[in-house]
Amino acid sequence: MRLVFDPFRLLLISLAGWLNQQQQDIIDYLQEENRVLREQLEGKRLRFNDDQRRRLAVRAKKLGRRVLHELACWLRCRSWRIHSRSTS
Questions:
Q1: Angle at which helices 65-87 and 50-63 pack, to 10 degrees?
Q2: Do 35 and 5 share a structural domain?
Q3: Looking at the 3D structure of the chain, how many domains does it have?
Q4: Residue 87: is its pLDDT beyond 50?
Q5: Which of 50, 86, 84, 56 is closest to 71 using CA atoms?
Q6: Do 6 and 31 fall into the same domain?
Q7: Is residue 24 domain-shared with residue 56, that is, in the same domain?
Q8: Number of helices (H), then strands (E), in the chain
Q9: In degrees rounded to 5, what are phi and psi of residue 45?
Q10: What would the pLDDT profile of 43-81 be if each residue is shown by its tens digit?
Q11: Phi, psi (5° rounding) for residue 64?
Q12: N or C: which end of the chain has fewer CB within 10 A?
C-alpha cells in the first residue's frame, strides 16, 4: 500500500497543524494570564457569584469529569510545589 499525498490533502494537513498551533498558543497565554492573576490574589480565595459559577459549570460540563479531575490534580500539585518553595 503506497501513501500518496495529493496537494489538497497536504494543504489540509498543513492548515490543521497551523490551527492546532494557534489554539495551543492561545491556551498557553490564558494559562499564564491565570497564573499572574492568581499571584495578584496572594493566596486569597476566589469568590464567584451565581452567574460566574453557572458560566464555569457550562464550560466544565463540556470538558467532562476526567479532564476536570486531571486539571484539579495538576493545580493542587503545582500549588503544593509553589508553597514548599516559598517555605524553604
A1: 110
A2: yes
A3: 2
A4: no
A5: 56
A6: yes
A7: no
A8: 3, 0
A9: -75, 140
A10: 888 888 999 989 988 888 888 888 888 777 766 665 545
A11: 95, 160
A12: N
Q: Of residues 62 and 88, which shows the higher confidence score? A: 62
What is the per-residue pLDDT for 84?
47
What is the grid cell recorded at 39? 499571584
Residue 13 contacts by C-beta under 8 Å, 6 or more apart in sequence? Answer: 5
**Grid coordinates belonging to 40:** 495578584
In this prediction, residue 31 has a pLDDT band, given cuts at 50, 70 and 90, of: confident
Residues 88 and 60 grouped into a single domain: yes
Do residue 56 and residue 77 come from a single domain?
A: yes
Grid cell, residue 76, equals 493542587
Same domain, 64 and 29: no
Cell of 23: 489554539
> In the numeric block, which cell numbers belong to residue 34?
491565570
Question: pLDDT at residue 34 above 60?
Answer: yes
